[in-house]
Amino acid sequence: MKKPSIVVVGSLNMDLVISLDRLPVIGETLPGKEIHYISGGKGANQAVGCARLGAAVTMIGAVGDDMFGAQIISRMEQFGVSTPAIAVKHDTSTGTATIMHTQEDNCIVIIPGANGLCDPEMVESHAEAIRSADILLVQLEIPLPAVERAMRIAAAAGVTIVLNPAPALPLPDEWIQLADIFTPNETEFAHYSGSSIDSGEELFRQMSKWQSRYGNTLIVTRGEAGISCINGDGIITVPARRVKPVDTTGAGDSFNAALGFAIASGRELEPSLNFAVKAASLSVMKFGAQDGMPSLDEVESA
Ligand code: RIB
Question: 4 CA distance to ligand 1 centroid (A)?
Fold first, then answer.
């Protein structure tokens, strides 16, 4: 099988992970169990996920000129990601994500820092890397004009685009159509479809509506329920594997990385979905978004 080449344009964060028995309610003060500082960011996590599976990965993004930025880059290099296209911005801090983590769930607050300085010019200066990739992976944790430029470069070169619309932000229809594959989670899909999606039937109804409107492949990630995907051939649901979760942070990133990897390796859609669901299920069994990303052997032998 050929070694897939993947470019990720997106965020790099230092994750401040606070472990708790349960999430606090509004107005409540709770003692946490511990705090960890670990590399994260949806873009960086997806890049590491692809590299762990064996892809040649280039990361385009930005960190601040500080200790967190240096640590994040060094960690990505250890995972084999190519980092020269990560800009080091002066007078700005590296992005952070404060994550409240319980065994089953998490909630995240982001301070963009240097991620907020990614602009179309920066992306354009790495256009050749995007044009020569098999897959472009993008998310929405960097400014939208930078995401748009990356997608336009890829679309003009016929590079397959996976847009993971996280966090959910209003997007012009034309952009949604630029993506070959659109991968919201259920909450994000509720935002884009404008429906509260309170049942499986409503989810499938909204997915069909979406598909007739935009025509691209839509994959909704559904946590323990796995994923549901619609394209011109109808709906496929792949259930998640039953595992005991340690940390669900980055499960969506692991899914997107493995999906991109499988498609770039030449697999058809359905085997790619099975592969990506397996990778995401494995990723929640270890603590930390990047450390949980499985290797190709781990996914294939699972
Ligand atoms: O998807 C998980 C990621 O979201 C975390 O690593 C955090 O940095 C936030 O970007």
Answer: 24
How close is the Cα of 152 to the center of ligand 1, in Å?
A: 25
Is pLDDT above 80 for 222? yes
- For residue 87, which of 125, 54, 48 has the smallest C-alpha distance? 125
Tell me: cis bond preceding 184? Omega within 30 of 0 counts. Answer: no
Residue 104 has pLDDT above 80, yes or no: no
Question: What would the mean pLDDT of 162-166 be, rounded to a whole number?
Answer: 98
Q: Calculate how far, in angstroms, residue 233's C-alpha sits from the geometric centre of ligand 1.
A: 32
Residues with CB under 6 A from ligand 1: 11, 13, 15, 40-42, 45, 97, 108, 110, 141, 249-250, 252-253, 289
* The pLDDT value given to residue 62: 98
Pocket test for ligand 1, best of 42, 138, 283 (most atoms within 8 A of CB): 42
**Band of residue 288 on the pLDDT scale cut at 50, 70, 90:** confident
Q: What is the mean pLDDT of the chain?
A: 95
Length in residues, the chain = 302
Nearest protein CA to atom 8 of ligand 1, as residue: 41
For atom 9 of ligand 1, which residue has the closest CA?
A: 41
Q: Quote the CA–CA distance of 202 and 86 in Å, as a whole number.
A: 41
List the residue whose alpha carbon is closest to atom 6 of ligand 1: 40
Q: What is the DSSP string of 214-240?
A: H-SEEEEE-GGG-EEEEETTEEEEEPP
Chain segment 185-213, per-residue pLDDT in tens: 999 999 999 999 999 999 999 999 999 99
Domains contained in the chain, CATH given: 5-22+33-295 (3.40.1190.20)
Q: Counting beta carbons within 10 angstroms of the beta carbon of residue 20, is it exposed (0 to 12), middle (13 to 18) or buried (19 or more)?
A: middle
Residue 1 has pLDDT above 70, yes or no: no
Distance separating alpha carbons of residues 27 and 230, to the nearest angstrom: 41
Output the DSSP codes for 24-37.
PPTT-----SEEEE
